[in-house]
Design brief:
The chain is mainly α and 200 residues long. It has helices at residues 3-16, 25-42, 61-80, 91-105, 126-143, 147-156, 164-171, 175-195, and strands at 44-48, 53-56, 112-114. It has a three-stranded antiparallel beta sheet with strand order 2-1-3. A hairpin with a 4-residue loop joins strand 1 (44-48) and strand 2. The protein is elongated and about 55 Å long.
Length: 200
């Protein structure tokens, strides 16, 4: 991202920092609109599943406007569902929704994930803000799991215990029990992180 792009995003960020209540949807939309449009039209880096880096930009003004509307609609839906913590800065959340929607519309969401993060009002670098948010979400997700799936999740975090055979041996489960529990765990994770705005 060049200096001019960073400056544009920073300008959008400054404007979106205005003291606008989220419940004042019109005011919130007007305040954060420049930032979301800048993210989409100036582009963002992406990382493919194989680790290769790329770049995606929405060049069509009409498409950018459509995606912006979808971004705010998705954001307010998450607010209504209680999935957005009001004390947090909204721009990282808006950016994540916008970039995921843009890749999904382009047919690239299954292969690539957004890499860049926009400027944050916090003192922490953007990546640290996102990392902390993800850690909080993982902690909440883990706490809500049944004991068996919680144990499987811990196994998944250990290299030598990631095979179903190793999990079964460690936890005293059959292959079928491990498989069924892993399927359930994946479904729970998909629902949880989609509701929190981390998955499209």
């Amino acid at each position: 991202m060049g200096s001019s792009e960073r400056a544009a995003l920073a300008d959008g960020e400054k404007e979106s920092r205005a003291d606008v209540d989220i419940d004042d949807r019109d005011g919130f939309y007007r305040s954060h609109l420049p930032y979301v449009l800048a993210v989409l039209t100036r582009g963002f880096r992406v990382q493919a599943r194989d680790g290769k880096l790329g770049f995606h930009r929405v060049s069509d003004p009409t498409e950018a406007e459509d995606l912006t509307q979808e971004t705010f609609a998705a954001f307010f839906h998450q607010v209504e569902n209680g999935n957005f913590e009001r004390g947090r800065p909204p721009t990282p959340y808006l950016r994540r929704i916008a970039t995921n929607l843009a890749l999904r519309r382009a047919g690239r969401r299954a292969r690539e994930v957004p890499l860049d993060q926009g400027p944050e009002p916090a003192n922490l670098p953007p990546s640290s803000v996102e990392d902390l948010e993800l850690k909080d979400l993982m902690r909440s997700f883990r706490e809500g799991l049944p004991e068996r799936e919680k144990a499987l999740l811990e196994c998944l975090g250990t290299e030598e215990l990631r095979s179903q055979a190793a999990m079964g041996e460690r936890l005293g489960l059959s292959r079928d029990q491990v498989y069924r529990s892993l399927v359930s765990l994946r479904k729970r994770a998909t629902v949880f992180f989609r509701e929190k705005g981390w998955l499209p």
